[in-house]
Write the structure tokens for this entry.
Amino acid sequence: MYKNYIFDLDGTLLNTLADLASSTNYALRQYGMPEHSVDDVRRFVGNGVGKLIERAIPDGLANPLYEDVLATFRKHYLIHSLDTTSPYPGIGELLHTLRSMGCNVAVVSNKFYNATVELCQHFFADTVEVAIGERENIRRKPAPDTVFEAMRQLGVTAEDTVYVGDSDVDVATARNSGIPCISVLWGFRDRDFLIEHGATTFVNTPEEILNKC
């Protein structure tokens, strides 16, 4: 049994996809750009909102309206991030069980900092001790910096620490941080994709995480 659990947020603890897609398409509409399906947005997420918008707009970073679309997305999402977002079934119970067992729980996300903190405070105020999102002066995942910062704030080391996520970015983040990774199969990436990107340990339900050592 691990003592310290660091979780990804989107696709792992929370199903945020519909709200992300809604804010993405809202921003695109404001500038007359083609919108995307929810499945498109599923493929775009995982590397932060900057990369999401880069993937969503024509010509990516070369588009002169990139910064405007990104700013519009951020403004809209901060208002609408709770419209349909909710924890996956069993997540609340899992986190309460971990805390009752004396385990430390943190969230490390590539979602921008304010949204990460607000969502964790709204849904997990009594279970998540540390929440870290994308911000200046710290490299986002798959760099290990945010994981190291979470461990620093928790007062723990890599020993007895595990990272739990749903994407290839999470697999790489754990590897770069020198800790094991548990890949969840209810999120934004499927098993075959995760295997292709080096995932080796899988769970189908949150309660299965308690049996992974």
